[in-house]
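User: Just a sanity check before I run the rest of the batch. Below are the structure tokens for the first item. I only need the designed sequence back.
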């Protein structure tokens, strides 16, 4: 019986614990060997060979998914391969997404010079003290990455537009009224 092959064998819990084999019983049955929980092996069904389900993941990719895509809602109708491909593309172009350090993303834009008609200056709308405080916070956030800059009193500005603060789920949003630019 030294060289015989068996299709099934039974191992006790002691043996499984000693050699670090972890068997998870749920919809997709798989097992891991040793302390490496990242590499999972499927129980063979029709095939008699053990196949690898998931390879060792990229640690940076896992951090990106947990930090940036935590609130993302990926279509549940996508297959696992499609979801992994989508996450891989998002990870590849992760610089384009906003983060705590780059609230507007790190993609450098371009400037479009278009002549503005004169008198595109609109006065500010009245705002409550709470809205003014939220507006100052938004302006400071946009000044940090250099999107906005303060203008001196004697500096000529071609276009000014009023902004309002809207509230959604106890968070403020700054909305600019740019109708004059589109005419």
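Assistant: Here's the designed sequence for the first item:
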């Amino acid at each position: 019986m030294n060289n015989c092959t068996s299709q099934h064998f039974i191992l006790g819990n002691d043996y499984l614990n000693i050699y670090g084999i972890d068997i998870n019983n749920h919809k997709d049955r798989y097992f891991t060997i040793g302390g490496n929980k990242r590499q999972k092996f499927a129980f063979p069904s029709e095939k008699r060979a053990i196949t690898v389900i998931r390879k060792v993941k990229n640690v940076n990719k896992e951090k990106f998914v947990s930090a940036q895509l935590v609130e993302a809602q990926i279509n549940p109708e996508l297959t696992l391969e499609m979801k992994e491909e989508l996450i891989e593309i998002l990870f590849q172009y992760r610089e384009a997404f906003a983060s705590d350090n780059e609230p507007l993303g790190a993609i450098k834009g371009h400037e479009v010079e278009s002549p503005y008609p004169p008198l595109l200056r609109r006065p500010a709308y009245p705002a409550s003290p709470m809205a003014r405080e939220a507006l100052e916070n938004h302006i400071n956030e946009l000044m940090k990455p250099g999107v906005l800059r303060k203008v001196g009193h004697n500096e000529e500005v071609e276009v000014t537009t009023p902004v309002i603060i809207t509230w959604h789920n106890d968070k403020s949003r700054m909305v600019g009224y740019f109708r004059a630019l589109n005419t």
